[in-house]
Write a structure and sequence with these properties.
Layout: E1 2-9, H1 13-20, H2 23-28, E2 39-46, E3 49-57, E4 76-84, E5 89-96, E6 103-114, E7 118-129, H3 135-164
Antiparallel strand pairs: 1-7, 2-3, 3-4, 4-5, 5-6, 6-7
Amino acid sequence: MLFQSEQVFSHPVADIVDAYADPNLYEALPDLPNIGRPQVLDHRREANKAFLDIRYAFMGELPAPALAIIDPAQLTWVQRTTIDVRAGVASIVLEPDHYPDRLRCSGTFQFSTHEAADCRRRVEGDLEVKVILVSGQVERALVLGLQEYLAAEADAVDRWLDRSV
């Protein structure tokens, strides 16, 4: 399932991209909807690139038929993120801790200037769930949960930057 989402931040692009490249951001994020608190597993910077491995857990609701096949407690994954700080682009690949044969997701984040000084993040991705009879329902639930999370995350990043200044 192809998906896209867009968020607007109240800080300049460079500040937002730097924030996402900073492991301290993830540790400071409050509880947000549908996704558990992130856990930074690895972080490194090389020139203009940042590499982060972050563990997440899905905490949203799944369709009832999916619960017979998927244990919600096992919907955890490592998000491998590469951020090109100079270009304002990030690529992600999700590697499931469980169900690697049933869940696949990758995407990009594009950061650009929005209305003079603010930042816009455009998220585009592809999520595939392979579960007999309920794949589409599970994909929709995961994408809706992700989109809600991304909107709340953008507000949290703005607040984190406000406190950091």
